[in-house]
Amino acid sequence: MSVTLHKFDLPAEVTFSGEVAVDTETLGLNLNRDRLCVVQLSAGDGTAHLVHFPEPRYDAPNLKRVLGDPALTKIFHFARFDLAVLKRDLGVTCTPVYCTKVASRLVRTFTDRHGLRDLCRDLIEVEISKQQQSSDWGAPELTEAQIAYAASDVLYLHRLKNHLEVMLAREGRKELADACFSFLPWRAELDLAGWPEIDIFAHV
Fold first, then answer.
1. For the chain, what is the mean pLDDT?
2. What is the CA radius of gyration of the chain?
3. Which whole number is the average pLDDT over 28-52?
4. pLDDT score for 164
5. Burial bucket for residue 70 (CB in 10 Å: 0-12, 13-18, 19+)
6. Fewer CB within 10 A of the end CB, N or C, for the chain?
7. What are phi and psi of 176, to 5 degrees?
8. Helix, strand or coil for residue 118?
9. In degrees rounded to 5, what are phi and psi of residue 202?
10. What pLDDT shows up at residue 130?
C-alpha cells in the first residue's frame, strides 16, 4: 500500500482513467453543520491519494477536474453522503457513479450487514479497521493512523465492485442497479435541499 498526502488540492500530474475510487472524511455526518476535511482517491492499484483540507478553503481545481470528469466512473461506498458533501463544498456534481453499498443491498439480501468492513471481509477476505472513523479530520496534521484508515476506505472499492457486478448480473439486477446509481446525485440534491429523511415517493 502506498499513500500520498496532499494539502488543499491534487497535483496536476496525478491522473486517472476509466474508474476512480472516492471517499470523504468530514467533521461529522450533519450536512447542515459538518465540513469536508479529506477526499481520498485510488485507481485500484494499491495507491491512495489523500487531499486534506485543514481549513475550509476549497479552490482545488485539479481535484474538481477529476471528480467532475464525465469519462471517469466514481466508485463510492455510501455515495449519497459523499456526493452531497462534494457538491456542497467543492461545487462538483460527480457523474457517473457506482455505489458498493447500494449494490450490496440489491444482491446481498441474505444479510443486513452492508458496511465497508463487512463487504471487505465477506467478498475479498480483507479485514479493515474502523477505529479512526470518529476522529478530528480537520486537525492541522493527520496522524499515521488517520492516514491509514482513510486510505483503506478507497483501496478495495474496485475489487468490491468487480465482485458485486458478478452478483448483480447473476441475479438479473444490473439494470436496476444502474438506474439507482444514476439517481444518486439527485438523491444527494434532495438531502441538500432539505429532504434528508422524507420519502417523497411514499403514499403518506
1. 95
2. 16
3. 97
4. 98
5. exposed
6. C
7. -65, -40
8. helix
9. -70, 155
10. 65
| Residue in the block written with cell 493527520 | 142
Q: What is the pTM of this model?
A: 0.95
Q: What's the one-letter identity of residue 11?
A: P
Name the grid cell of 53.
483540507
pLDDT band of residue 203 (cuts 50, 70, 90) is: confident
CA separation for the pair 3, 41 (Å, rounded) = 10
Which secondary structure element, helix H or strand E, spans residue 101, and what is its range? helix 100-107
| 29 vs 33: CA distance, rounded Å | 8
- Which grid cell sits at 51? 487531499
User: How are beta strands 73-76 and 19-26 bridged, if at all?
Assistant: parallel
Q: Return the pLDDT at 42.
A: 98
Listed residue (56, 20, 21, 22) closest to 37, CA to CA: 56
Ordered by where they begin, the domains of the chain are 2-193 (3.30.420.10)
* Helices (H) then strands (E): counts for the chain: 7, 6
- Predicted confidence at residue 199, as pLDDT, reads 87
Residues 6+ apart with CB under 8 A from 29: 81
**In this structure, what C-alpha cell is assigned to residue 202?**
411514499
**Of residues 45 and 1, which shows the higher confidence score?**
45
